[in-house]
Task: structure prediction
Amino acid sequence: MMMMVEGYDELPEGSMEGNDYSLNSDEFDDDEIDKSANEIDAEGWYILKCTKVIDETERFDKTPSICFNFSVTGTVDGQSPIGSMLYHRIYVATKGGGPPSEGARKMLIKLAMRAGLLKKVKGEDGKLIRVNAATGSRRMDVDMWMKMSQKELVAKATKEEDSKYGDKYRVEYSDFFQLDSPKVATRKVVRDRLGTGNAKGPEKFDVSGI
Result:
């Protein structure tokens, strides 16, 4: 008969008690468990759901950043399966706390627009301006990025060149799209999800707003 050990404190990390194969159920924190799933290991178009947003802007030993944990919820044959993970990190300031470079700021705006965190509205002069979709403010703050949680986006994963960590895959800022974007209407993973079969998308796309 198997004897179970009472109390997780009695089990050190990675140990087993006697021969009953008891393990410490609280050995790892949630982030470590999330990252135990297989990561995307094939290029292609996926539907990704943001399962967690990690705010690391207060870690003064590192460049202020926010990390998005994405899980594959839509895929096609020959690509990574449902449940595979992808981790995307954005840097919202320099290590000293200053603003990112102009190029980096443009990429952040593009990602926020693609994810629906920003939207365009008419300003007082009638011109279109970008504002926080939740607050109407022009501020792109941490609270805005936290609203990425549970969003589903279409994304193109590509293999990183010369990665020092082996085969790694990433998504460029400009390769995230909302499910209803005409830019991805003809992608099989999108047609499968939306049930549009072999429907063809428009020959030309208006991307002025994204």
